[in-house]
Each structure stands twice: as structure tokens, then as C-alpha cells.
Amino acid sequence: MGYTIAQKIIAAHLVSGEMKVGCEIGLRIDQTLTQDATGTMAYLEFEAMGVPRVKTERSVAYIDHNTLQTGFENADDHRFIQTVCKKHGIYYSRPGNGICHQIHLERFGIPGKTLIGSDSHTPTGGGLGMLAMGAGGMDVAVAMGGGEYFITMPKMVRINLHGQLGPYVSAKDVILEVLRIMSVKGGVGKIVEYSGDGVQTLSVPERATITNMGAELGASTSIFPSDETTRKFMAAQGRESDWVALASDPDADYDEEYDIDLSALRPLAACPHSPDNVRPVAELAAEGIKVDQVCIGSCTNSSLLDMLRVAEILRGRTVHPEVSLAIAPGSKQVYNMLADCGALSVMIAAGARILECACGPCIGMGQSPNSAGVSLRTFNRNFEGRSGTADGQIYLVSPETAAAAALTGCFTDPTTLGDAVKVDMPDKFLINDNLIVAPADEQDMDSVEIKRGPNIKPFPKADAMPEDIACKVLLKVGDNITTDHIMPAGAKILPYRSNIPFLANFCFTRCDEQFPDRCREHGSGVIVGGSNYGQGSSREHAALVPLYLGIKAVVAKSFARIHAANLINAGIIPLTFENEADYDKIEQMDEVRLDNIRSVIAAGEQPVLTNVTKGETYRLSTAFSERQRDMLLAGGLLNYTREKNQ
Length: 646
Hints:
The chain is of the alpha/beta class and 646 residues long. The radius of gyration is 24 Å and the shape is globular. Helix 10 packs across helix 12 (343-350).
């Protein structure tokens, strides 16, 4: 039996384990990336491991999240990251150079290579044919030190794309259709591979848009073949020598298969407050929904191709007087090329507000909409409150749909605008890597001083797992709890990503404002959650902050992949109900016990949760590998690594 594309890359990078679905495998990692909201903690963890220089082929630190400098905190973190990079062999992308995933696609991604990043949208690299996965900062730190990256061997899903997209229909509509079909939970434990004659009609930036939002499926990653289109893109970036062809074998076997007719697709929108709440734009337009704000950019839709299409729609027109239009190019390369060809001038003349090349509004870092405002965004997430406005009504749309609404002031099907705009990919991109700083040579690294600001605090210390856990259920939450619920982002909080004690004041406050104080009062506790607990961002702060507040275990119906791994890394036990109906029997502040939990975990047995308040017991399930059991017993990945190296 033949291999899928992902299986070929896994086989070439397999260090430990067996390629059987459900088995834990360890992979050699070729490249890593971090961004500044997660990077400071990742580099503190890397330092704690005592490895003098990264052992990957390429590691890059990007500054793209915390670029709003209203105090010293962000600037101090950037300085810390830059000096760590210089000392330890990491390339540093300066503020203003752009968004990590857009730049990595342009300048560093290589087909057939493995990439992990401390950002959940790292699968953007799958548009080039990389096995690119989001991960927690600790996992990235270990990979930089030469360690394996462990995942559970995923199932394989093939999505066959047929035909060609029609006028004003784009790659964003493709991934929204996939989300409509599979849901935000449908990709968990799976790798999504795209194939079919329709693949040939999609450029690399369009493919990257689709793999980027594979994160919203909960998938381990998504991937396209590396073909002639890929070669031309890399040649235009001056990197043709890095190109290799990659395709699945004709007799490769898939666990699931779907077919999408690209020619039948119409513009779609993800309605508040979930990326899979998808409806046709034509329906929303018929309802006459007024639009207050339009934001175009993010790692999903900020490529040169996207920006040029928007400029052509705006050309000679003016943004509706009741709409605020903000546009953020994805990289300095895109920004420069827009300026050189005049497209930037077209956007400005139309009334667009041009933002810096950064994540910005996507993570609530500025451009929050008005109260209850309807905001159309070309981003990847529309979780409640993520925009910075608690009652903001956020819709996810394509650049074409966004531009149409900016002009009309209401939801508008862009296919009604007339003849389609035609934009061609350039034969050669403008290449200027002057904002990427190379590390010091190995012989000079000892002389580099790492600069630390007062906002940088140590990460919380985890203790080895006790024999018994007896505490209260300090919080009970429902389904699809996101890492934004657990540890919010936004302009007021993101500057403190390296200060866990301060962040603790905001933990779960979107669900229960009293949660941090309740944790401090009781000292330790358990959280009970519903399905898909921890979906969304890869931020490990959503595990480290609960650890700091004394959370010992999370019992849920099911977990999102990255967050479950981050909990284990932090030494918090993720447990699932054997019978999901038991979730309904537990109430917040019930007294619970996990008796003999250390012995049970060590033996690979299934724990039992005793509800002392109700006089009931509930059987729980685990699927920990031997390595994960040892990590939990040690109190997390750092303790486990230290013990192994002693």
C-alpha cells in the first residue's frame, strides 16, 4: 500500500514509534518558528534546558503579535528575544517585517520539511508541501534543542477539489466550505490532504489560505502537493533550489474522503461566533445586514494576491461613509510591492486605513469594532470577545466579500459587482531580507549578553504528581471552550505574556470573573469542561496560568490536540469522561477526589473520579503514551527533561 504526502514526510522524519493510527510517534524537526506572544516563554524554557545553540536546520523568531507599544513591556520582550536569538543561533525577524506565517511561506518554507511553531496557524506551510504543525512553546523549545516532537499518528483525510473557482470566489470560500462540512471538531486527530484537478488551479498563496484555516478544523495539519505551481512560486521568491516535487502514491489509503466542486462554490461567511457557523453571503445580503467595520489581512488573507484583488475592487471607488476599512499587508515584501505598483495608493485613495504588517486586529491588538458592531474580517477566528469588543459581531469572509461590503456598507455578494478582477502572480517577487537578523557566529555567541526587562518573570514551577488529589471543582464550563476563554489576548493583556503572575488575574474571566480569586482562596482545584475543550490558539499560557493558580486536572468530554499536549507539558492531567452523561452530574464547587492517581497513571490504568459531595463515582478515560505518563508523574515536560538528563 502506498503513502499519502504526509505519511511520506513522517516516514522520512520518524525517530521513534510506529506509523499506526493512534500510536505516539516522535519526529525529527527541521525548522521551528515562534512569535512574540508565545516566544518569550519558549525561549525562557529553551534557556532552562541548557542547550547552547539550536540544533534545527532553521529556527526563526518573528515579532508580529505584540507590536503595539503603549509601555515598556513589549519593547523589553522584543529586546530579550533578539538577544536570545543572537546568542543561540536563531534568525530574528524584526518588528515591521511582517506576520510569521506569511514570511515563512515566502522566505523559509521548503517542501517535504517538518516545521513546528508556537502558533496554531503554522500549518500555513502546508500550502508549500511542508508538514507544518502548531505546538506549545515547550515543544518548540525541545525541538530547537534537538529533541523529538511527539504526536499521535493521525488518520488521513483526502479532500478532492474539482473544477475551477468562479469570479469573486476565492480560497477562503473553499476552507469555509470544508469547515461547514467537517466542523471545528471534524479534523481532530487527522491530517487533511488536498488533491484533484482543482489543485492545479490554485496558487501557493491560495493553498496557504486553505491550510492556514485547517487549524480551525482541529486538524493536526493540512497539506497540498508540491508541484509545478509550487516550483514557480519558489522560483519567483529566488528559492527554486529548495523545491522538490511531492505527491501521494496512487494506491495511498485514506480514512475519510470528500469531494468539492470549486465551480459550484459561492461566497461564504462564518457567522458569529464560530468558524464553522457558515452561511452563503447571498443569504446574509438578502437580510440587509449593515456593516460597521471591515478588516483585511491576517496570516490567512494578507498575501500580495489578496491585496491586489482588494485594490482592484476598490479602484476609483470610495469606502462607504459608515464603514471603517482597515488593511494590513502580511509582510514587508507585500507592502513594498503594493507601493511600487500603485495598489497601495489605490487603497489609500479609496479611504482605507493602512495598518502595519502585523497580526493586529486578528488578536484584538487594536481596531476593536464599536459596541455590538458588525465587523467583516478576512481572519481565521471569530470567537466571542476576541476582537476586543465583548458584543462585537464578527464574520469571517474572503477579501473579495470584505471589499464589496466596505464599498456598499452592508453584506454584499461580490459576484454582483460585475466583471471579475484579474490579478496575476508576479514572475519575481521583490526580495529584501534586511529586517531578518542573522545570529552570531558560534565562536562569538559567548560574548552576547541576554537583556531581560522587569516584566519577564520565571515560568511557574510544577511539582511531581501526588499520590492522591482531593479538591473542589473550581470551574465548570461548556463545549468548545477556546484558549481565548481560558487566557484572553488583546492589547491590555498580551504585553504581559512573559508575566504569569499578572496574567493569572485574567484567567477564565470571560467565563467567570471570580475564577482567579476562587483559585487563590482554595489553593488547588479541578476544572470540568465539555467537548473540544481548549480549541483555538496554541498559547501554552492557557495551561501555565491554570498551573500557577493550582489547577491539578481538567476533566472534559474531549480535548483539542494542542491544548491537551500543553496541559501534559505543564503537569496538569487531562482526563475524559468514559460516559459523557456524567458531565451533567457534576456541579461547580463539588468536592472531588482522584484517589491513587499517581499509581493509576503509572500503571496505565483508567482513573475514577469520586464526587464526595454527591456520593457518586465516574469512570474516566486516558490515552497517554508511556512518555506522557512519565511526564505527568514528573510534573511536566521541563521536570521530565531535567530528570532524563541527570
